[in-house]
Amino acid sequence: MKAAATTPDPSTLPGLLDLRRLEDDASVFEADVCIVGSGPAGLAVARGLAGLHLRILVVESGGLEESEATDRLSEIESVGFAREMAPRRVRNRVFGGTSESWTGRCAPFDPIDFERRDWVARSGWPISRAEVMPWLERAAPQLGISTQFDPVPDRLAGDEALRECVWQFSRGRDGYAFTQSGREFLAERALDAGLADIRVLLHATVREVLVTASGRAVEGVEVVALNGRQARIRAPLVVLAGGGIENARMLLLSRRVMGCGIGNGRDQVGRHLMDHPRGVIAAFDRTAFDAVRARYGLFRLPQPGGMQTYVRGLTLSPETQAREGLLNCAAWITEERAEDDPWEA
């Protein structure tokens, strides 16, 4: 449950701008780096560049709190496998992005996720997990998690089909609540002079990524607010941090120079979305649940900065995936409250 709080007026916070309220003569911004998206990824990039004497501008489609009008911009047509959870519920157009709705669950991809698999068409990344791990370790403090990603053995005794896997939960500045990137950034900004130099433009939805006539270099972005006010941001470097769906949408909408969209010469932008469908596969009755929870429930380990919360689950071994021609997947247990639970009263 989130505590009720008064949302500050952006006009009262230095460096926070609201496109809807800007005068016409402020319709052009100059920046060295324009970061599109203020979720965990976008703000991590902004923090990493702070103190380098760069003009950094973070562009966010939403405001400091969510609104139905802004959420409607996230509507999509979903074709194919029906999702249990609507895309709008896991894509937040608000300062802080998806960190406003996630549960803090974090885990690195497995090595097999990066590898070419004969049973998965067009699989394989040009990088390996080993190459990614140093960057995950660098990102861990931004998410409030430990760099101890695998604190327990991953193989069940006597079972070659399944492996144990582990998630850990993000820890906010207070040591307990999940990290909410936007709120924590504003709190840090008040204390860190380097972060205070980062400007944020709210209620600014990217309409097009601007490129040179050759299409080989970026020039900035054009943004628009729901009330029609427009602006152009000139920047030689643009970071798209809007998530898998929005990043692709921005590239495909940018057709002024390249008719098929930026980077889409081979018709691959927006394809191969790595979604994560889920569903209930089993249930345990009360007589068995305590034993299951003892092994696969939450557990805590001491880590620098405080106790870190983990939870175990089960995943298919790479050998099982190859033998059965399956994709990687995982299972975990969760508790459901009874209808007559006093907590629900």
Walk me through this protein's architecture.
Belongs to the GMC oxidoreductase family. Residues 32-244 form the FAD dependent oxidoreductase domain. This is GMC family oxidoreductase. Keywords: FAD, Flavoprotein, Oxidoreductase. By secondary structure, the chain is of the alpha/beta class. The protein has nine helices and 14 strands. Strand 3 (33-36), helix 1 and strand 4 form a beta-alpha-beta unit. 25% of the residues are buried.
CATH H-level name of the largest domain... which superfamily? Answer: FAD/NAD(P)-binding domain
| CATH architectural group of the largest domain | 3-Layer(bba) Sandwich
Strand content bin: 15-25%
Summed up, the domain count is 2
Unreliable runs: 1-6
- Specify the helix fraction band: 10-25%
Largest sheet, in brief, is: 5 strands, parallel
Mean pLDDT: 86
Question: Quick one: CATH class of the largest domain?
Answer: Alpha Beta
User: Count of helical segments?
Assistant: 9
Number of DSSP strands? 14
Strand order of the largest sheet: 1-7-4-3-11
Question: Which descriptors apply to this entry?
Answer:
alpha/beta, FAD/NAD(P)-binding domain, five-stranded parallel beta sheet, 345 residues, 2 domains, five-stranded antiparallel beta sheet, disordered N terminus
